[in-house]
N5-carboxyaminoimidazole ribonucleotide synthase (Arcobacter arenosus), 385 residues
Amino acid sequence: MNKDFNYSNLKIGIIGGGQLGKIMSQKAKKMGFHVTILDPTFNCPAAQVSDKHIIGGFYDKDKLEQIVQENDVTTFELEHVDMTILKELYNHGHKIHPSPYVMELIQNKYEQKKLLDEKGIPVPMYKDVRNDEDLASFGFPVIQKAKLGGYDGKGVQMLKSQEEVNTKAIRDESFIEELVNIDKELAIIVARNIEGEIKCYPVVEMLFDERVNICDSVLAPARIPFEIEQKAIEISKKSIEALNGIGIFGVELFLTKDGKVLVNEIAPRPHNSGHYTVEACATSQFEQIIRAVTNLPLGSTKLISPAVMINLLGEENYEGEPFIHGIHDALEIPELSFHFYGKSYTKPFRKMGHITVLDDDINKALEKAMKAKDILKIKGSKRYV
């Protein structure tokens, strides 16, 4: 076991101060570690629970260097970060996990897909786009993705015709994918530490809000046959080993109508599909990343109870200071946990919090969660039509 860390006085840097960083910081503080976060927003969610807040952007080389220099190990809660200075620091022996080289590869969705494909991991058929003719090479409809900068449905476009190529196509660097005949969208959180120890959480099923293509609900475990579950776990493990990743990774998968499991994409950080682990698993994904990047033994990923997680998104037609409606009635639902991220401003479809509902029966958990979703609303101080 690596002995480089003094665990009684360990300093962890987290690049990013949103809700993921907030819960990571809370778990690190529980273990007695000192936490510094880097984020441009004053009083961002993670700043509310951390020891130190470096106010700076994710492309500010001086601030990125500061957080690495001041901490024993640095990790991420988001991937859209300038890796130039981080690669230099990593090359000089600073501990940054996942490595800036892994992060840089994953930032480019095309290069990520190409590597997985080269390693024999099943992915949808894809092709680099150099001109409008390439956009039509798989026929229509087809999925176009920006190579860089996409998240939460942004940077993804379905093109249904040549006319839409002219009017809706992404004009940044992009690639296309075949439109997969999807039965279910699945995900697995995979943890891997510095020693190469690897553990998978249960396979979960993701349901999406089709208005904005944001993950809306997560069911753990997924309602899939055992052989599909095993195939998904095997593919996800191989994907993280192919990347030589250290930390926590959200592996998003497609289950096709004919029973194939394909990797959609990988997030190199805690993932929305793993929020349920706080209440439902022996070790949450947020504690697990702290263990992984400090080379502590990985915790048990045992599912203690079936669970459903629902994202609480800012209501349509509202923005401004957030107000929570229905919390009293929602918390009367048995085995419901409520998380509010502490963001000072809401807007339509912004992730403002989540709920997790436990039940021995996954379908009953879903029923209770949907009831809570109808009750709980995050509205802003300004309404517009």
User: Anything to note?
Assistant: The mean pLDDT is 94. The CA atoms of residues 34 and 293 lie 14 Å apart. The longest strand covers residues 182-192.
